[in-house]
């Protein structure tokens, strides 16, 4: 039977279920068990269909009782002199939800009072969303939550909303993370410094860097000698939001870590670029990498194949898509090692096909 990507993910679904209770050895880290169980079983070039990596398990905190050393005096990315004196009510807002995941890892889950749509962790699902129409800040919603600290970057906006929050007397720290594979540890340390928890930040960063190195080594051992040519495709709905992502979103970091070739970056795509039929023909990937929500919004694989130019690509001819959790796919944070390993299981792991 011809291997399908759907079969790959289904075959490993028990292994990849969230929560330590589903693991054979609950004393061993989830990422380490994924490393140990990763085996190459078949040629990924022969795969067809959609493989989905669903919601990841939540970050295990390095402490459950953070004792922040305050005040913290700093100059933020916008040049403002800021004094952080209270971390009891935090709003941590960015495009991918990386800040809330990192704060959980630092032990600050109970201090988070709101979120963006990308902070989709189970533990935060009942908290109010303070963005509209995706990632547009609603300043009034932010102020209604009376945060003691707002941590934000310019991946969301508009800047006027950030200014309005600051001018209302709220302590605002604007960050400027690199948000790429080799900056994960430093981005964690930088956020930890803002909330007065450098020791916890060092511990979480070291743990994440080790897990990342282990994941990359395990994946490198199973990738084929002829790497899959992959294209990160960003879609929202069936209208005009249909883009190829490249260097500006650091897609090459993700795809290279999965053992693939980023054909978008290879073809000079930096900023998000319209996925026109001509552009799709030029990059002609063997596999599309997408966000779960994006694929669903197009009408899943059937709807995607109706978009002009998609069906003519090698990936389209094989309906070949790797769909990743929206808030984790390009987040580059403490969950990235698990994301890589789950995606690698989907691409290279054993199947139930005979």
Structure description:
With 354 residues, the chain is of the alpha/beta class. Helices cover 33% and strands 14% of the residues. The chain contains 14 helices and 14 strands. It has helices at 5-11, 30-37, 98-105, 139-144, 159-167, 184-194, 198-220, 251-257, 263-266, 277-283, 292-297, 300-304, 314-317, 336-348, and strands spanning 50-52, 72-75, 81-84, 90-93, 131-132, 136-137, 149-152, 172-174, 229-236, 241-244, 261-262, 273-274, 287-291, 321-324. Strands 1, 9, 10, 11, 12, 13 and 14 form a 7-stranded mixed beta sheet that branches. A 3-stranded parallel beta sheet has the order 4-7-8, sandwiched between helices. Helix 1 (5-11) crosses helix 14, helix 2 packs parallel to helix 7 (198-220) and helix 6 (184-194) runs antiparallel to helix 7. The radius of gyration is 20 Å and the shape is globular. It starts with a helix and ends in a 6-residue tail after the last helix. Residues 1-28 have low confidence and may be disordered.
Describe, in short, the structure shown.
The protein is an alpha/beta fold and 354 residues long. Helices cover 33% and strands 14% of the residues. Helix 2 runs parallel beside helix 14 (336-348).
Based on DSSP secondary structure assignment, what is the total number of beta strands? 14
pLDDT averaged over residues: 88
Low-confidence stretches: 1-28
Strand content: 5-15%
Q: Strand pairing plus helix content: what structural class?
A: alpha/beta
Order of helices and strands: HHEEEEHEEHEHEHHEEHEHEHEHHHEH
Number of helices: 14
Q: Compute the CA-based radius of gyration.
A: 20 Å
Helix fraction, binned, reads 25-40%
Oligomer: single chain
